[in-house]
Specification:
By secondary structure, the protein is of the alpha+beta class. It has nine helices and five strands. A hairpin with a 4-residue loop joins strand 3 (99-106) and strand 4.
Amino acid sequence: MDGALKILAENRLAPEDIKQIKVFTFAESAALNTNYPQNTEEAQYNIAFPIAVALLDGAVGPDQVLAPRLFDKDVRRIMDKIRIIAQERFQKDFPAKAESEVEITATNGKVFASGVMSAKWDPLTVFPTDQELENKFLWLTSPVIGEAKANALASLIWHLDREEKLDRMIELCIQ
């Protein structure tokens, strides 16, 4: 996802400018499903779906792995352009490194490469900041439990060592 998004941003491409996407990766990554997902679980264990939806929406979150986005024709159109290719250059360092490279061929014939990339926040590359973790937590929990509860829960989690009971935490998790 990050490699494909990087290429779009750096080259001012739009999803409709894409003719083909190649993802060069290690065998275990290439073995992930690439079929159209039929449910949330299939979407989360799919390699093509999150790339396609990220190119269209800029991110992959709860809204993207649920209907109606799960069955969107534009997402499927992008998925049809994705080819996953296992390469020894990535296999030799796996599992110590989980790297991939994305190559996008534009409709005008130009080819753009992401360069070798690791997953965002891969422990071998860059750890997230506390603020990045909190932002992701709020992004994922606010739509489910509401913004006020999500903020209160985040605050409680940051100071969990001061809590004697988990009652308040459990209460905040309930809708």
